[in-house]
Automatic annotation (TrEMBL):
This is Glycerophosphoryl diester phosphodiesterase. PANTHER family: GLYCEROPHOSPHODIESTER PHOSPHODIESTERASE, CYTOPLASMIC, GLYCEROPHOSPHORYL DIESTER PHOSPHODIESTERASE. The lineage of its organism: Bacteria, Pseudomonadati, Pseudomonadota, Alphaproteobacteria, Hyphomicrobiales. It comes from Rhizobium leguminosarum bv. trifolii WSM2297. GO terms for molecular function: phosphoric diester hydrolase activity. GO terms for biological process: lipid metabolic process. Pfam families: GDPD. Residues 2-233 form the GP-PDE domain.
Length: 242
């Protein structure tokens, strides 16, 4: 069975990056919960996709606000940008965590990497957007790295050569030739459902073609509806986390 990664938690049913979305993802049988992480002005990691607090109707930039200031804002009945510490209090070690790292500065990568030692029972996967960030994190140790690159084929081989572990592909950018090349080389490949060129929102899962991608070699699916994906692929296999 493939890994089901709850994109921003169970974001199809709950507010994204919220405790409710994390709880919901776990109950839905997700193998991994994906969380967007950023740093506040005082160096605390918080969970929010956007660089500002527009989700709470506020234009202030997270990187320019302290955690105390950020904590004053809520959206949908939940903190607008809950701390990463709260995520760890909700998500048990039996469910892996994927960080979509929004701040890829050297200091942010260094500090985020420390969570491997702070929470050694959790499987932590670091989603990075540039090859330079992959090189930086790899120099710190053997962290598991997912490539959230721009989708260009020219970067595929380079990503693995500089230390990446799993490559995420956009659904619309998957071709037979590309998949055959990567699969034949033994690389692990995940897919973000929907998004560019599909006519669906990022993370929107189409169960009708899921088996096609599974047969093509995709071993993980980033989806907004982990419950629907679980129904399409079958029961969760215990012990997925490493």
């Amino acid at each position: 069975m493939p890994a089901i990664i709850a994109h921003r938690g169970y974001s199809a049913a709950y507010r994204e990056n919220s405790p409710a979305a994390w709880h919901g993802a776990i109950e839905a049988g997700a193998d991994i919960v994906e969380i967007d992480v950023r740093r506040s002005a005082d160096g605390i990691f918080v969970c929010c996709h956007d660089p500002d607090l527009r989700i709470a109707g506020h234009s202030g930039l997270i990187k320019q606000m302290t955690l105390a200031e950020i904590s004053r804002f809520s959206a949908g009945g939940h903190p607008a940008a809950p701390s990463l510490g709260e995520a760890f209090s909700v998500i048990p070690p039996a469910t892996a965590i994927l960080f979509d790292v929004k701040d890829e500065s050297h200091i942010a990568l260094l500090e985020l990497h420390k969570h491997r030692h702070l929470f050694p029972k959790h499987r932590l996967i670091f989603g990075l957007h540039s090859l330079e960030s992959v090189r930086t994190l790899r120099a710190l140790g053997d962290a598991e790295i997912l490539g959230l690159l721009n989708g260009q084929e020219a970067e595929d081989e380079v990503f693995f050569n500089v230390g990446g572990n799993i490559l995420r592909l956009w659904e619309s950018m998957i071709t037979g030739t590309r998949m055959n090349t990567l699969r034949d080389r033994g690389y692990e490949l995940w897919m973000t459902a929907g998004g560019w060129g599909t006519g669906r929102e990022v993370g929107e899962f189409d169960a009708g073609n899921a088996r096609h991608y599974l047969d093509a070699g995709i071993s993980g699916f980033l989806v907004n509806d982990p419950k629907g994906a679980r129904a399409a692929f079958g029961p969760r296999v215990p012990g997925y986390t490493k």
